[in-house]
Specification:
By secondary structure, the protein is of the alpha+beta class. The chain has three helices and two strands. The longest helix is centred in the N-terminal third of the chain and has 15 residues. The chain starts with a helix and ends with a strand.
């Protein structure tokens, strides 16, 4: 059994924690570039009768 699974984490949580720790360990100049890749955006569009009625971006 994987250590992350034994700790009660799923793979997504494990990989997010590992990425965060790696970004913190980088030198300052590289950390700024890595921080730009940290953000992700999701767009959700609700549909009614085949037409979009509301778009929300997270």
């Amino acid at each position: 059994m994987s250590a992350w699974r034994a700790a009660g984490l799923n793979y997504i949580n494990y990989s997010n924690i590992a990425a965060k720790v790696l970004r913190q360990a980088l030198k300052a100049d590289l950390r700024a570039d890595a921080a730009k890749r940290n953000d992700s955006h999701i767009k959700v569009t609700k549909w009614q009768d085949g037409k979009p009625i509301k778009t929300t971006e997270y």
